[in-house]
Amino acid sequence: MLREVKNPQHEQYYFRLRLGFMAFFVMSLFALLALRFIYLQITQYTHYQTLAENNRISMVPIVPNRGLILDKNGVVLAHNFFVYTLEITPSKAGNLKTTIAELGQLLEISKADIKRFAKLKSESRNFESIPIRTHLNEIEAARFAVNHYRFPGVAIKSRLYRHYPLGKFGAHMIGYIGRINSKDLVALEKSGDLSNYKGSYHIGKSGVEQFYETQLHGQTGFEQVETDADGHAVRVIARSAPVPGTNLVLSVDSKLQEIAETAFGNRRGALVAINPKTGAVLSYVSQPGFDPNLFVDGIDVDNWKWLNESLDKPLVNRPIRGIYPPGSTFKPFVAMAGLENAKRLPPYRISDPGYYSLANSRHRYRDWKPDGHGMVDMQKAITVSCDTFFYGLALDLGIIRLTDFVRHFGFGAKSGIDIRGENAGLLPTPEWKMRRFKQPWYQGETVIVGIGQGYTLVTPMQLAQATATLANNGVAMRPHTVVAMQSPATGRTVNVAPVVQDRIALKAENIAIVKQGMMDVTLPGGTAASVGANAGYSIAAKTGTAQVIGIKQNAKYDSNSINERHRDHALFIAYAPADNPTIALAVIVENGGHGGSAAGPIARKVMDYYLLGKSPNEPAAQSAKAKLVQPAGHNESAHDE
Amino acid sequence: MNKFFKPLLVHIDSFLMGCLFFTLMVGLFVLYSASGQDFSRIYDQTVNIVLAFFVMWLAANIAPHQLERIAMPLYVLGVVLLVAVELVGSTSHGAQRWLNLGITKIQPSEIMRIAMPMMLAWYFTKLEVRPSAKHFAQAGLLLLVPVALVMKQPDLGTALLITAAGFYVLFLAGLSWKLLVGGTLSLAIAAPFLWTLLHDYQRRRIEILFDPSQDPLGSGYHTIQAMIAIGSGGFAGKGWLNGTQAQLDFIPERTTDFIFAVFSEEFGLLGNILLLSLFSLIILRGLVIASEAKSTFGRLLAGSIALTFFTYAFVNMGMVSGILPVVGVPLPLISYGGTSMVMLCLGLGILMSIATHKNVVAT
Questions:
Q1: ipTM of this model?
Q2: CATH fold group of domain A58-247
Q3: What is the pTM of this model?
Q4: For the domain bounded by A254-309+323-637, which CATH number is listed?
C-alpha cells in the first residue's frame, strides 16, 4: 500500500530522470539530422550541385500500351496506333498566348484546340507536357521540326490513340475510352491509382473497356531524365519500363456479331446469346449502335447532340439497361414454378374458353386466341402460349411463391456480367407495391404476372441468362464476355474459368415437360413454327409480345392503326440444339409486333451461323429492307396474348 | 512607461521570447524568398504572428491550475466536435476535417493537439496513487479514441502529432519500460496481421509512404526535388533569393510543408545548423521549465509541449531531407499558415505560464 501512494520527492526525481532521457533523445535525433545535412550538403554536394545546375531532373512517364481487345478468333476489336501530337510544357514555354499565336501561323490550330488546351492546362501541373494539336500529318510535323528552335518548351510527341476497327459492331459491349475527366480523377485518387495515370490521357468509359480498365491500362513506367534549360532531355538517369496492358479475348465471334446486328436492319432492339454451359457471351447486340471511335478524342458537339437526343437512343446499352415486360417469354419460368410447387402436374388439364375470370368478378382476362385452345395441359400451354392456363396457375401459386421461385433464374437481380451499369429489372411483390405506391396488392395483378405483364420488367440480359439456366437444367453460369487474358509481357494466356452462380434444384421430369413444350413451339402447331422450319437442328423456343400501351376491355389490337412507337415489343427466347444446347439467346425487337415473326428470324440467323456456320445468303442491305416490311405484313398472326 | 508595461510582461519568459522572435524573423525572410518575393504573403504571415502572440500572451497569463480545470471540458468538447466532423463535416481535398459553424469553419483536430496533453496531464494529476498499468491503459484509451477519429478523416500528420503529445505525457508520467518495450513488440507482431486486413490500395499507399521512389511520378517527385535543393545548397548556401530549385518552382509546397528545402538551399549547412540550434534552445528551455515546475500537471504538460515542438521540427526536416515518409507536418514557426502558428504559440504561452506561475502555486 505504501509503495503505491504518491511520493512527491520520488515522483519529481523519476520525472527528471525521464526528462533527462528525453533531452538526450532530442539531441540525438537532431544530431542525426545534422549528419544527414552534412551528407547531402558536403559529401554529395557535387552530385546535387550538378543536378541542380544542369537544370534539374524531370520525371517523364512512359505510358504503357493499352491492351488489345480481340474476338474469339483473334480478330482485333480495339487496338492502338501512334499519332503525332504537338505539345507545350507551360513552365518552359514563356508567354503561352504568343507561343500559340505563332504556332497558329505555322500549323492550323482551331478554336476547339485552344479551348481543349486551356482545359487540360488547368487540370495539369505546369511542368507537364500538354497537347495543343493532335493527329499531325507528316508535312505538319516536318514544318514544325524546321521551326523547332523558335519554340522553347514546344515539342512533337507521338502518342497512342485507340481505334475500333469494327466501328459500330459490338460497340455497346466493347465500350470505348475517353479523356480522363475530373470525376475519373477523383475516382483514381481514391483508389490510389492516380500516379499510374500520369501521362495517360484516356480511361475506359463503358463496356469491356471500362470494366477491365485495370487490366487493359497496364503499369506506367518512367524515365528520370536530366534536361537542359530548354527542357530537352540530356541524359537518362534512371528508367523503369512500363508494363503493357493485358490483351482481352472475348467469347464473341465478330462475324456472328455482324450477322446479328445486320439482321436487325433499321429496327431498335437487343440480342444476347450465351453459351449455357459456360456463361460465355456469344453475341451482344444493342440497336441502333454508334461508332465508338467518335469518343476517343472527345466527341464533337453535333454528334453528341444527335446521339443523345435521337428518339432511337443509340447510347442506351439495351441488353443490360433496357427494361421490358417479358410477355409470354416469361411463361416457361412460371411453368417451372408451377411444376416444382406440384401445381398442374400431368395429367392436369383445363378446358380453355378463351378467357379467365376471378371468382366474383365479371372482368375477363382474355386469351390471345379469342375462342380458346380447347383442352390444354402444361406442355401444350407452353407450345400454344395459352394465356388462360397461366392466369389460373399464377393465381394458384400466389405472387410471393411465384416471384420467389423465378428469382432463382436471375429475374429481379443483376446478372453479374462484366459490363457496368446493369439494371436489376423488377419482380413485383405486395411489399414492393406498398413501398412504391402505398397501395395493397390486388389478385388481378397476380393473374397478369403469369403471362409476363403487369409490373414485371426484365432486361434482355436477364432473359437470355434465364433461358441459358433452363437449357442447362437449372445450373446458372455467370455471364461473361472475357474468356482469356493474354499478358504481352510474358506471353502467357490465362483462361477465365466459368463460374457457377447458382444450382437450382429442379426435378428432371418437370424440366422435361417445359423443354418439350418449348421444342414444340418451333414445330408445326407452335407459335414459331416458321422459325424452326428446315433448321437441320432442333430449337426450343418461346415467343412473346409485350404491350407498350394498354388495350381497353373488348377493344381489338390493330397494329396498323397504331403509331409505330406504340406497337408491341416482339420478344423471342430460344436455345439449340434442344437436346444438347450450346447456345441460348433472347431477342427483343422494340415495337416489332409479334415475337415469332419479328424477333424469331433474327434468332434463327444467329443460331444458323453459330451451329452450322451458315451466313444469311442474301446481301445485308437487301435483308434489312425485307425485314422492315415484315412486321406489318405478318399482321394476321400478330399477338399471341 | 515602465510601470505600465511591467505588469503586462511579467508572465513572458524572456529567453523563450528571444528565441521565438529570432526564429520568426528568419521565417519571414525565408517565406519572402519561397513565395517568389510576394509581400502579401509576408503581410498575411505577420497578421498570423500578431494573432499568435496575442494568444500566447493570454495563455501565459492564465495560471496552470486554471488550465487544469478546463482540461477535461476542453477534451470532451474536442471529441464531440471530432465526432461531429465525422457526421456532418465538410470535405476538402478528399479529407473530412472542417466543421462549419455557420460563421466560421473550425478544424477540431487542432483543438485536440493541445487538449490531449492537458487531459492526460490532468488525469495523472488526479490520481491519488502511483499510476499502475491499469491507469496507463485507461490513459491510452483516452489517447486512442480521438487519434482514431482524426486518422479516419484522414489526417495522418495531425494524428501523429496528437499521438506524440499524448505519448510524451504517458512516458513522463512513468510509463514502465516493460510496458513500453512490450507494447512496441506486440505492435510489431500484430503489424503483419493488421497488414492483411487492409485493402490493396491502402497497402500501396503505406508502401509509397515509406518508399516514395515507388511512386516517382507522385510523392517521390517531391522528395527528389527537395533533396536536390538541400544538397545543392552546400556549406554556405546559394544565398537569399538565389536558390534555383526554389525560384524555378521545382520545390512543391515550397511556402508550407517543404519550406525547409528553400531555406536549406539558400542558407546551406550553416543555416541548417543555426536553425537546429534555435529549435534546440526552445526545446531545452521547455524541458527546463518542465523540470522546475512544482505541480504534476505543470510538469507533464510543459514536458509534452516541449517535446511535441521537437516532433514537429524533426518530422518536417526529416521528411524534407528524405529520411522520413512524407506526412503533412509544417516546419514550426517558419511554414506559412495561421493555424499551426497560433497552436505553436499557444503551447509556448502555456510553457511561459508554467514557468512564471510557479511561485504563485507554491504559496
A1: 0.92
A2: Penicillin-binding protein 2a (Domain 2) (3.90.1310)
A3: 0.62
A4: 3.40.710.10
